[in-house]
Amino acid sequence: MQTDLRGRDLISTQDWTREEIETLLDVAWDLKRKRALGEPHALLRDKVLALLFFFTSTRTRISFEAGMAQLGGHAQFIDHTTTQISHGDTAKEIGEIVGRYTDGIAIRQCDWGVGNQYINDVAQASRVPVLNMQCDVYHPFQILADLMTIMEKFGRNLRGKTINISWAYASSYQKPISVPQSLVLLMSRFGMNLRLTRPPEYRLMPDIVEQARENTRRHGGSFAILDDFDAGCRDADILYPKSWGSWLTTEDELASAEIGAQYSDWIADDRRLRMAKDHAIYMHCLPADRNIEVADSVIDGPQSVVYDEAENRLHVQKAALALTMR
Ligand code: CP
User: Looking at the whole model, is its pTM more than 0.90?
Assistant: First the structure.
C-alpha cells in the first residue's frame, strides 16, 4: 500500500499507480464511513484550497467546497472572469503566486487544446499540489467516483465485468471528451472487459486509446471498439452512455450539431437497458439531456446509480485532498 502521496498532483489517473489509486479508494471509504457516523475528520485544519473555474459546474464546485469544509479547511472559489487572468496573468504566474497563498490548487479548464496544457503549466510553477477538476482531456475525479461506485455495486474484484462506455446523442452543447477518455484509461486497469461504442465521428484521442489498450494488456480483460449501440449494450454489466463532442472530427459547433443529428436515435432507453444483464447498472456523470440522451424511465429507474456516483465525488475528492495536502 502506497501511503506517502503528500505534494502529488492529480491531473490524470495515469499519473498514479494502481496501488496509489487503491489507497485513495481505501481512504475515500474510510471518510465516507466517518461522515455517515458523524465522526469529525478535520485532517486539513487551516489549509486552503484554491478552486479556479474557467467553466460552469454544479457537482464539482459544491463537492470540493463541502469536502474542504468537512476536512476543517477552506475552499476559495475563483471564477476566472473576476480575476486578472482575463488581463494577462499567465499560468506560470498563477502557479507561482496562488501556490504561495494556498496549500492546493484545483482547476477546471475545458477549452479544447488549451485546458490540459494550462493545468500542467500551473503545476510546473506551483509548489503545492495541482488537482484537475476537468480539462479537455481528462476528468479524473469523476472517474474515480465512478470506480468507487462500481466497486460498491459489484465488489472490489472487477475482473470479467463488462462495461459499455458509449456515446449517446445530446442537443445541448458539444461536450468535452474527458469523461470517456478517463473512463477507458481507469477501467482498463482493473481487469474489466471494455467496450467503447461510438459513431465513427466520435473517436477518442489515439494516444489515449493506445494507453487503454496497454493497460488491458498489463492488467487483463479486453478492449473492443464498436459502432453499434445495441451491440455495446448486449449482456453488459455496466452501461455508461453519455454524449461527447465530435472534437477530433470538427471543432465547429454547427458542423458538430449536424453530425450529431444523424445519430439522434442513440438514446439510453428501456429497450437498450433490457439488452444488458438483469443486474446491470446505468451510470452517467451528469448533467444529462433528459429524454434525448437518456429516457427518464432509465435515469430515474431502479438500475440507475447516478446519485451514488455524484455522492462519491465528495468522498474520492476528500481522500485526494487529505492525502496530497496534509
Ligand atoms: N459531473 C460533473 O463534473 O458535474 P459538474 O459539471 O456539475 O461539476
Answer: yes
What's the pLDDT at 158?
98
Residue nearest to ligand 1 atom 6, measured at CA: 57
Alpha helices per DSSP H over 52-172 = 59-70, 91-101, 115-125, 140-154
For residue 29, which amino acid is it? Answer: W
pLDDT of res. 229: 98
Whether the Cβ atoms of residue 48 and residue 77 lie closer than 8 Å to each other: no
Q: Measure 56 CA to ligand 1 centroid, in angstroms.
A: 8
Q: How far apart are the CA of 176 and the centre of ligand 1, in A?
A: 11
* 286 touches ligand 1 (CB under 6 Å): yes
Cis previous bond, 241, omega within 30: no
The rounded Å distance from CA 220 to ligand 1 centre is 30
Q: What is the mean pLDDT of residues 18-31?
A: 97
Evaluate whether 202 touches 277 at the Cβ level (below 8 Å). Answer: no
> Are residues 144 and 36 in contact, defined by beta-carbon separation less than 8 angstroms?
no
Indicate which atom in ligand 1 lies nearest the CA of residue 139. Answer: 3
- Does ligand 1 have an atom closer than 6 angstroms to the CB of 294? no
pLDDT at res. 191:
96
What DSSP character marks residue 214?
A: H
pLDDT at 286: 98
Q: If you measure from the C-alpha of residue 320 to the centroid of ligand 1, how many angstroms do you get, rounded to a whole number?
A: 17
Q: What is the mean pLDDT of residues 57-86?
A: 97
Q: For residues 230 and 160, what is the distance between their CA atoms, to the nearest angstrom?
A: 20
108 lines ligand 1 (CB under 6 A): no
Residue 173, C-alpha cell as written in the block: 452543447
One-letter amino acid at 196 equals L
Distance 313 CA to ligand 1 centre (A): 9
